[in-house]
Fold:
Amino acid sequence: MTLLTATDLRLSFGPTKALDGASLTVHAGEVLALMGPSGSGKSTLLHCLAGILRAESGTVTFDGRELAAMTDAARSELRRTAFGFVFQFGQLVPELTCLENVALPLRLSGTGRRAAHAEAASWLERLEVADLAGKRPGQVSGGQGQRVAVARALVTRPRVVFADEPTGALDSLNGERVMQLLTTAARDTGAAVVLVTHEARVAAYSDREAIVRDGRVREQEFAR
Ligand SMILES: Nc1ncnc2c1ncn2[C@@H]1O[C@H](COP(=O)(O)OP(=O)(O)OP(=O)(O)O)[C@@H](O)[C@H]1O
Structure:
């Protein structure tokens, strides 16, 4: 089932054509890796798909709704409820404990403190970092922080998780483990994952690879 579609996206930053007619389809529940050379437009495409950036032309449709036609409030609501995000670093709130960080998206959606904390604790356990619940992000390692970030991205049971170089700051062992945990949890909950990476061993966890070159999606391959 088609979940998210980008059609003929174009977006320039000054003279740089970051997207130059990019089209892509994301199917429900699949893990899709966006690969390609540095500067080819992968992050820009991810941000347009997630409704963070708006293309100058072209359309992005999620579940039959065109993002650009939605009000800002509706788009924010969609990002909060249907989308999860994992970035390379810096996405955890430093003043909050790991448990509070994971509970935050639920609290913002109106879930009570006790229920949000219970759900967050179960996600920390799933990501094998239950022992970090009371620690602040500054007190945990990079790999542990990314596990907490994955828990936070999945706690609302989103339809899509957008991950931009989620293992980019980790060594290969930690990176592989984070990818295993992310893809297993996403498959368990039925979330699709759109993943930007330049590492083949990270892309190996995907169902499908799309190659971005010069602001376009050149190939979409079924990896395995
Ligand atoms: N905010 C911005 N302002 C100016 N130029 C930008 C901006 N964002 C992206 N670009 C430019 O647009 C092009 C595409 O960038 P993008 O980050 O999407 O590429 P990428 O494929 O994700 O690269 P990398 O693999 O190095 O992260 C690059 O030439 C980049 O320098």
